[in-house]
Amino acid sequence: MRQEGYIVLINETDYDWIMARNFKLRMKQFCFPECIRGQSEAVAYLEWEEVGKSCEENLAAAVCYELAGTESSFTLLAYEEGNEKDLRVYFEKMSARGLKDKETTSLGWVNGGTLRLILSKPEEGELHRLEIYPDYSEGFQAAGKKEHKENIIKTSVSWNGSFYGVGSIDNLCLFDSCCWEECEIILNGYPGEYIRCSLTLVIGGELTSKSFLKDIYLNGAEENHLTVHIGQQTTLILAGTAENLNGAEARADITLTGICKENSQVNG
Predict the structure, then answer these.
(1) CA-atom Rg of the chain in angstroms
(2) Can you say whether residue 211 is alpha, beta or left, with left for phi > 0 and alpha for psi between -120 and 50 degrees?
C-alpha cells in the first residue's frame, strides 16, 4: 500500500532553521528545504518505499535542523514497522512543553494527510517550545514582489533552480495578507532541456483536489501557465520536484503569484 503525506513546518521563532543533516534509507521521497527562515512556513513531502512485512522497527529517514546562532537543534525521524509508520522529533539543547532535553516524542502519521509542526517563541524559563496544532497560526505578513494594477494586487515569489537529475523545488509561500481570488503558476524552461515537474499546492494547510499538479512538461525554452481558483483569505505554499528527462544538469524558473482585489487586503 502506498504511503505518502506532507508535514507543514511553521517557524514562529526569530531564528532561521538551517539543515545540518539529511539522509534516507527506505524512503522514495524525503523532500525538506535547506533553510526555513524565522517567522515563515515550509512544506515537506514524504513517500515511503513499499517493503515487505517486518516485525522489526527500522529508521527510514532523518533530517536535522539547527537554529542559526544557537547550539539548539531538532531532528525529525521517520520510523517504520511493517505497514506502521511514525514521525518523531528529537530535541538537542532545547526544551519543549512537557519534554526534556534529548527526549523524543511522536508526531504520528496520517497516510495521504498533512501534519503540522510549530516551533514557537519560548515562554519564561524555556529555550524554545514545540507544539503540534491542527490549524495554521495567524498574523504573518505577506512576502514577495507586489504589483498594483486596476484595483488588483499581485504578489509573487519565485524559485530559480539548477539541478542534476531530480531537483527539489524550494517552498514558495504567500501568507494570508488578503483574500486570494486565484493564484497563477508560471513555469519557464531553457533551450535543450526536457523537464517534467510535479507540484503540490497546499491551501490553508490542507490538500484538496486542486493541490496536485503532476506531469507538467517543459520542452526547451517553453513557458507554461496554470491558474488555480482560491476564493479565500489563506496561506498558499507551493512545493514539488523538477526532473530533467535528458539526464543532464538543468535549470528552471517557477513563479507563484497570488491575485486579490485591493479592498480585500488585510491592513497591519
Answers:
(1) 19
(2) alpha
Q: Alpha-carbon distance 268 to 26, whole Å?
A: 45
Q: Is 20 helix (H, G, I), strand (E, B) or coil?
A: strand
CA angle, corner 25, sides to 19 and 28, nearest 5?
A: 85
CA separation for the pair 247, 71 (Å, rounded): 40
| pLDDT computed for residue 149 by the predictor | 55
In the DSSP assignment, the letter for residue 211 is: S
Angle at 68 between CA 66 and CA 71, to 5 degrees: 60
Q: Which residues of the chain have pLDDT under 70?
A: 51-55, 95-101, 113, 121-150, 170, 205, 263-268
Q: Tell me which residue of 194, 230, 202, 200 sits closest to 213, measured CA to CA.
A: 200
Is residue 238 within 8 Å of residue 258, measured between CB atoms? Answer: no
d(CA 128, CA 138) in angstroms, rounded, equals: 19
Q: Which three cell numbers stand for residue 29?
A: 521521497
